[in-house]
């Protein structure tokens, strides 16, 4: 059931091929993508934020599920990786690709409000978490992956993950579910 019949977004295969050419290894898997797509579809006219565009693979799931009134902002500090996403989504008026440091962008854009935040890099997850959750509308979703041990984790990273989970568990302003799905997802709705 988990592995079969997950239809891929239109740009998926081409972005994957370009990512491999660039040697970009940090791609979200189809399970995270599939859940993202479902969550995005639940918010017509939604405003979405992705932290860590990479080459745009997760963005391909987000964009596929967005209706004509939805918009997405995706931030990455690597111009080369983001250029792949730009090639596929740069002319879509609903998509804004910003190349800058995520920490700085979050701190400088506190007036922004989002229906869903996919925090797929250090900023918004292990740094400036408070500021990131502050940008979530009530009822908005916050999704993070890589919460279960992964072979590519750097030394000492389990401690970061444990601390993040413990912090989220004691917050009273969110409802969260820890999922043994994909690389280990934490799925949060803001109260
Ligand atoms: C896990 S990858 C994102 C993958 C992408 N979301 C996907 O699913 O295909 C993390 C990305 O974060 C970017 N990144 C790392 N540090 C950053 C920072 N301080 N600000 C913005 N982006 C950063 C990296 O360049 C990398 O592309």
Characteristics of this structure?
23% strand; single chain; 36% helix; alpha/beta; Rossmann fold; binds S-adenosylmethionine; globular; 7 strands; 191 residues; seven-stranded mixed beta sheet
Structural write-up:
The protein has a single domain, classed as Vaccinia Virus protein VP39 (Rossmann fold, 3-Layer(aba) Sandwich), CATH 3.40.50. Helices cover 36% and strands 23% of the residues. The chain contains 7 helices and 7 strands. It has a 7-stranded mixed β-sheet. Helix 4 links the parallel strand 2 and strand 3. Helix 2 runs parallel beside helix 3. The N and C termini lie far apart (31 Å). Bound molecules: S-adenosylmethionine (SAM). S-adenosylmethionine binds next to helix 3, strand 2 and helix 5.
Q: What's the average pLDDT? A: 97
Shape: globular
Number of strands: 7
Euclidean distance between termini CA atoms: 31 Å
Overall tally of structural domains: 1
CATH topology: Rossmann fold
Which structural class best describes the helix and strand composition?
alpha/beta
Task: Give a summary of the structure in a few sentences.
The chain has 191 residues and is an alpha/beta fold.
How do the helices and strands line up, and which of them pair or pack?
Elements: H1 12-22, H2 30-41, E1 47-51, H3 57-65, E2 71-76, H4 79-89, E3 95-99, H5 102-108, E4 114-119, H6 129-134, E5 136-144, H7 157-169, E6 174-179, E7 185-190
Parallel strand pairs: 1-2, 1-4, 2-3, 4-5
Antiparallel strand pairs: 5-7, 6-7
Helix pairs in contact: 1-4, 2-3
